[in-house]
Amino acid sequence: MVETYLGIDIGTSAVKAVLIGADRAILAEAETPLWTSQPRPFWMEQDAIDWWLAVETVTGMIARAAPESWRTVAGIGLSGQMHGAVMLDRDDQPLRPVMLWNDGRAEREAAELQSNHPDLAEVLGVPAMPGFTAPKLLWSARHEPDIFAATDVVLSPKDYVRLRLTGTRASEMSDAAGTWLFDQAARGWSRAAADAIGLPFDKLPLLTEGSDVSGLLRFSVAERWGLRPDVIVAGGAGDCPAGGVGIGAIDEGDTFLSLGTSAQLFRASRQYRPRPERMVHAFCHALPGRWFQMAAMLNGASAFAWVAGILGRDIRTLSMDVESRYSGPSDLLFLPYLTGERTPYNDPYAKGVFFGLTSHTTSEAMAQAVMEGVAFIFADAKDAMAVADTSFDGIGIIGGGSRSVLWARIIAAVLDRPLIRFAGGEKGPAFGAAALARMAKTGEPPEAVAITPPITGVVEPEPRLVDAYRPRVEAFRRLYAALKPEFGRL
To answer: Are 80 and 158 in contact (CB under 8 A)?
Structure first.
């Protein structure tokens, strides 16, 4: 019997699943959307139960699409959005909606943690920022003391799904790395960080490596899904490191950018190399003895989805119309900071801005400016990581935004680096989660499973566009610098 492996990604805009075979071929895939609520300015929340309902939906879709392969599932891997604070009571019930990675309410708490505990940034991999789990827990302790006191365990989003799958309260290194509660070099929870927010140490879950077995699928779930009773659930990974596993970015210097709801520039390492002074994240990878450096930006392909919605246009059609009209840089500038920003500014108050609108501005011009604004934040990311002694040659590109050849052309020109496009690159995190499930089940070494998928193309930087975009990047930076004081006043 040929065994298959299921990868489930708990994203921000959707839950995705892929079923892969022994040859890494995708046998079936599915996704279903998620909704985010914003009850107050700077608040971004989702209900944990919605993730589980979405998991039930996508697994049902996979089972119907490939029934024979579904019955041979031997392992499940999980990936998911990082930094969410899932606060559960002693009966494993959510006590409140989950504060997400792009929730900015804990700005004061993050600043206080950084001021009172400046040495922790070197240990925890990055300065305290509002979107991380620890500042949000401190906010809860101050504003919702009854909820904080009733919290029996704190999990990350994908680890809530693991709990529903296995009954195990557990996390793994790469997702725990993003909580601001984790000692990156020691690969374990930091008692000093927990003490800094008044969180009892026993409220943190067990830890495992991403490629290890974290538990077995509950009999009731296996029976309902029509699966074997011995299906394992791997440790898994946060979404970005899972994407790295999916495209084989696991060794020193392997680099890619992710253009999903948010955006990241990622470089794998065999050593822990913190550079907190540049807001570069230095976190554990999903595999033992490996780390990564990452510039994390809060606004990626979601900015294009936003402008399409504002314009009342279909995303795919709008993207094609922009590409058909493209001849070079737009006359507009767009600051894409719709939900604040992390690298390199750590500015939760930053806002989105169109600059240069006239009575002749078209919807296509606005959409192109959004693409360019997101490309420009990758220029900031590259510079931040270059200061952190990180250099780049070819860069892989994954995430939903990687489908757009034009966007890749713009980013390649802005970075002046070739971008490598992969088969299935938009499915990176779910695919990486499935690969981790296979490692956990078979014991194969990472080098045998986390390999580079087929390359579908290389987008080379075009000299004409490199020269044309260079002054636009500088104008983009000047615009942010000029408006930064006004963002804070607003």
So the answer is: yes
